[in-house]
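Task 17 of the worksheet. Students: predict the tertiary structure of the chain below and write it out as structure tokens. Keep your answer in the requested format; marks are given for formatting as well as content.
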Amino acid sequence: MSEGPNNPPPPPPAKLSPVPRTRTSTTWVGICAAALTLVVLIIFMVQNTGSVEVTFLWMHGTVPLALALLIAGVGVAILAMVVGAARITQLRRLSQRR
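Model answer:
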């Protein structure tokens, strides 16, 4: 079909509304990010197998570098969660008083 005086141009296609974000889609993105992070962590651990000497309080020993860094990272994550939980508890108590 051609455009002309008797044939008006076709209307533009209707815009499709975007698909709403759901909890399932957010969870899926989180799982994908966690899997990618795990792959990177495994590669890091395989590449850093050299032993290092570690002294902590009364304990002395040698462990692979990757394991020492992983333990330190988990310790920092636990500390951050404890501080975050304390702050959330503080804010909840404050909001209940108001």
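Marker's comment: The CA atoms of residues 1 and 7 lie 8 Å apart. Helices lie at 23-47, 65-97.
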